[in-house]
Amino acid sequence: MASNWRxxxxxVRSFVGNSMGGLRGSQSLASWVVAGTIAYFLWVKPAxxxxxxxxxxxxxxxxxxxxxxEKRRPIADPQVTGLIYGNKxxxxxxxx
Length: 96
Fold this sequence. Notes:
Blueprint: H1 2-19, H2 26-63, H3 78-81
């Protein structure tokens, strides 16, 4: 019975070792550290930063709606820029 238990533990260790790419010891540990670091900086950290930024924006908008300003450029009027021809807005003084 004891040998059966040891054999099953050996099979589990073998399975885990093979699933990790067959590397053993410090090579395996180093490869997992590198993979985990890359995954953190490519996927986890940007998602956390985006979530924090969205929460900060929402908190600013709720705290004082007049203070929060969206940092986007306004869309120009196509008539003023000349993209649409027609009656353009004139800035001259009206004639009396």
